[in-house]
Automatic annotation (TrEMBL):
Superkingdom, natural source: Bacteria
Position of the signal peptide: none
Protein name: Nicotinate phosphoribosyltransferase
Any single Gene Ontology cellular-component annotation: cytosol
Protein source organism: Lacticaseibacillus camelliae DSM 22697 = JCM 13995
Keywords: Glycosyltransferase, Ligase, Phosphoprotein, Pyridine nucleotide biosynthesis, Transferase
Post-translational modification: Transiently phosphorylated on a His residue during the reaction cycle. Phosphorylation strongly increases the affinity for substrates and increases the rate of nicotinate D-ribonucleotide production. Dephosphorylation regenerates the low-affinity form of the enzyme, leading to product release.
Keyword Cytoplasm among record annotations: no
Family: Belongs to the NAPRTase family.
UniProt pathway annotation: Cofactor biosynthesis; NAD(+) biosynthesis; nicotinate D-ribonucleotide from nicotinate: step 1/1
NCBIfam families reported in the protein's UniProt record: NAPRTase_put, PRK09243.1-2, PRK12484.1
Coiled-coil stretches: none
Length: 459
């Protein structure tokens, strides 16, 4: 920022796209998340006096530049897809335009926020899809990579489909129901497991969800829970459920269900936890495990099976004295060659329906009308050009006001996400070998890309 961008190109504005190339867990799409925090960061973006003092101590920057930072006011605009939107490879999640030095400065913070929250929202979508309509509680704070990841990872998990959290601070911040059950330490601290269950029921008679695997699920945990449930029922209270956190959960849940039903507690729920994910949950359900809820911790809050969304921040155009010049990054790896210019992504629907069949990335000044010549955006395909004859088109990205907070109701965003997911072919949503959803670029954009590639080779 202190180099050529500030001193040599002060009149040049840059246009940067944020997009990704590879879907985590070999899925089909990524669920966009993090926009609300991006807006919060940009609305309050500044350098404090302490920041300037620290930068001065590095002896890397002249005083004029430090004063520029001290008085910096962002002059950037942002467009983005709404949180909860399914986004496919190479489609911009966000586009930033501003003075070249300012827009470049934002790269790290924007990628940090969008990569993390979109990753966790995507993982949560996979896990809640696997749960097949059963409630999923986010239980991962103790395994997240730090407090910030726990808090904003919780928010992203709700966008992806979770319904509650054990993280009370995140629950407070984002209006999420707080949920959980007793700890093993509660059971261990009392003279006996039965004493522990009775103490819990005394304090929480209408929230008696008992952890039954501290000692022996079937020989003590469930029988003691049934004893306490009978006492609660006699006192006019309704028992909630049990949680199993270890062992062969499928076998234990089946036996526990039989015991609870035989005792007259058919309405008592069984919750499973213990390192569950979208691979373990379907296996449990396929074995007939009578599970009603899932508490998901480390596998969701860290996306441990695929822990990085490699979103990138690439210059797509510059604007000097009002003149726009498309820019491109050319790579020896053809799949890393970028799409130049200011763009818009459109979701295409079968006419008169909300059944999406493809996306098209177009230059922002193009009008999408049938027939439309397009090229498959996958650079590794050999036969890619077709003409689309019938479609309804909906733009995905919109300008984001930076003078007011972004929409922040996580359950409203979750409902939006479920609506957008329902528009996609179900084959693209399955967890194993999902079908490829086609993303095209317009012929005009493809031609511009090839033109810039050719010019780069000549240089």
């Amino acid at each position: 920022m202190a180099g050529g961008f500030h001193h040599d190109l002060p009149q040049t504005r840059g246009v940067f796209d944020i997009f990704y190339r590879d879907v985590p867990d070999k899925g089909s799409f990524v669920l966009a998340a993090g926009l609300a925090q991006v807006v919060d960061v940009l609305r309050d973006f500044h350098f404090s006096a302490a920041d300037i003092d620290y930068l001065r101590s590095l002896k890397l920057y002249d005083e004029d530049f430090l004063q520029y930072l001290a008085n910096l006011k962002l002059d950037c605009t942002v467009s983005a897809v709404p949180e909860g939107t399914p986004v496919f490879p190479r489609e911009p999640l966000m586009t930033v335009e501003g003075p070249l030095d300012q827009a470049q400065l934002l790269e790290t913070v924007l990628l940090n926020i969008l990569n993390h929250q979109s990753l966790i929202a995507t993982k949560a979508r996979r896990i809640t899809f696997a749960a097949a309509g059963r409630p999923v509680m986010e239980f991962g704070a103790r395994r997240a990579q730090g407090p910030d990841s726990a808090i904003y990872g919780t928010r992203a998990a709700i966008i992806g489909g979770a319904g509650s959290t054990s993280n009370v601070l995140a629950a407070k911040m984002f209006g999420i129901p707080a949920a959980g059950t007793m700890a093993h330490s509660w059971v261990e601290a009392y003279p006996s497991e039965l004493d522990a269950f009775r103490a819990w029921a005394k304090h929480y008679p209408d929230n008696a969800a008992l952890l039954v695997d501290t000692y022996d699920v079937l020989n003590s945990g469930v029988p003691n829970a049934i004893s306490v449930f009978k006492e609660l029922r006699a006192a006019g209270h309704k028992p909630v459920g049990i949680r199993i956190d270890s062992g062969d959960i499928a076998r234990l849940a089946k036996a526990a269900r039989r015991m609870l039903d035989a005792a007259g507690f058919q309405d008592v729920k069984i919750t499973a936890s213990n390192a569950l994910d979208e691979n373990v949950i379907p296996a449990l359900l396929a074995q007939g495990a009578p599970l009603d809820n899932f508490g998901i911790g480390e596998k969701m809050i860290t996306s441990s099976s695929s822990p990085v969304l490699s979103g990138v921040y690439k210059l797509a155009a510059t604007r000097t004295n009002g003149v726009l010049k498309p820019k491109i990054k050319v790579s020896a790896s053809i799949e890393k060659t970028t799409l130049p210019g200011i763009k818009q992504t459109y979701r295409l629907y079968t006419p008169g329906t909300h059944e999406a069949f493809a996306d098209v990335i177009a230059l922002a000044d193009e009008q999408l009308e049938a027939p439309l010549a397009v090229v498959n955006s996958n650079p590794l395909l050999t036969s890619k050009r077709i003409v689309l004859k019938e479609f309804d088109a909906e733009p995905l990205a919109a300008p984001v006001p930076l003078d007011q907070p972004a929409p922040s109701d996580v359950f409203e965003i979750q409902r939006y996400a479920k609506g957008k997911l329902s528009e996609l072919p179900i084959e693209t949503q399955r967890l194993v070998n999902p079908d490829t959803y086609t993303v095209y670029v317009t012929q005009k954009l493809a031609d511009l890309q090839q033109q810039l590639v050719d010019e780069a080779k000549q240089d």
